[in-house]
């Protein structure tokens, strides 16, 4: 504990409102990927947004499309915004590394959140994804393009990011019962993000 990854929670608690304002002012670059994700959901299905922030634009889009949204985040200021914006949704203050809601969802999202975890914590998340996914549920998340760490900036403070190698992600997904449907590294149409779209097959690998 005490490393740069562990500073993430405090950063988003201190600067969450400023981050939300920046997010609202920026482009909705994930729209095309989210459309692909939504196309895999059953009508009116349940979606777990892991690292939901203030519930916009992703929660807003999903709710408007008729899906039941549950969001988790560690930032109370961001969750307060989400509750005010979408009171019919469910908002839970929780650390994704300890995710254990005791239910399964029709879709899972970890957009611009999962990549803030240290590499060892990322590896353990795939079992948690699987434990919260219905059969055939899509999972979408962002990562880095290759194994390594990077430090960004949030309101003048260092912002940690990490990634595994794409082949390790593929192996972890397979072991957790997910089939990779699409993966694009450094997608120019999505702000340079590396995006994964998978679907829970229920068939776990030998690991």
From TrEMBL:
Record CDD domains: AdoMet_MTases
Molecular function per GO: methyltransferase activity
Domain of life: Bacteria
Residue ranges constituting the Methyltransferase domain according to the UniProt record: 47-131
GO biological process, one term: methylation
One Pfam entry name: Methyltransf_25
InterPro entries noted in UniProt: Methyltransf_25 (IPR041698), SAM-dependent_MTases_sf (IPR029063)
Keyword terms: Methyltransferase, Transferase
This protein's name: Methyltransferase
Record organism: Roseomonas fluvialis
The organism's taxonomic lineage, starting at the top: Bacteria, Pseudomonadati, Pseudomonadota, Alphaproteobacteria, Acetobacterales
